[in-house]
């Protein structure tokens, strides 16, 4: 059952990332939702939580910028979050 919930939360987070990418969900809303997936984070090694929280912190800080800049790239963060999701999916599948 915990693995099913973690897998469900992973899919929800993927859907939220698509909404973020399509600008149907804001940075702070995405971050709040991502941090709430406790079953997913508990099912992964602790390093995954550290990395995700670091990405989310950068995403929230980047909300101050209205466009791409030399110090912030929204697209790069979204791509990094997708990479995190892909690795998390592989880790859950191997468990």
How would you explain this protein's 3D organization?
This protein has 95 residues and is an all-alpha fold. It has one domain (2-94). 77% of the residues lie in helices and 0% in strands. The protein contains 5 helices and no strands. The chain has helices spanning 2-21, 27-35, 38-43, 46-62, 74-94. It is globular and about 40 Å long.
Q: What is the helical fraction, as a range of percent?
A: over 70%
Q: Mean of residue pLDDT?
A: 91
SSE order: HHHHH
Backbone shape? globular
- What is the gyration radius calculated from CA atoms? 13 Å
Largest sheet: none
Roughly what fraction of the amino acids lie in strands? under 5%
Structural class: mainly alpha
Please count the beta strands (DSSP E, at least 2 residues each).
Answer: 0
How many structural domains? Answer: 1
In terms of per-residue confidence, which ranges show pLDDT below 50 for 5 or more consecutive residues? none
Map the helices and strands:
Elements: H1 2-21, H2 27-35, H3 38-43, H4 46-62, H5 74-94
Relevant terms:
single chain, 95 residues, mainly alpha, 5 helices, 0% strand
């Amino acid at each position: 059952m915990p693995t099913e919930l973690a897998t469900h939360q992973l899919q929800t987070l993927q859907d939220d990332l698509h909404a973020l990418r399509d600008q149907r969900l804001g940075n702070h809303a995405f971050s709040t939702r991502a941090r709430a997936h406790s079953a997913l984070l508990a099912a992964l090694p602790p390093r995954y939580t550290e990395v995700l929280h670091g990405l989310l912190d950068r995403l929230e800080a980047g909300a101050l910028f209205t466009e791409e800049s030399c110090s912030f790239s929204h697209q790069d963060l979204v791509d990094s979050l997708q990479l995190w999701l892909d690795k998390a999916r592989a880790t859950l599948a191997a468990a």
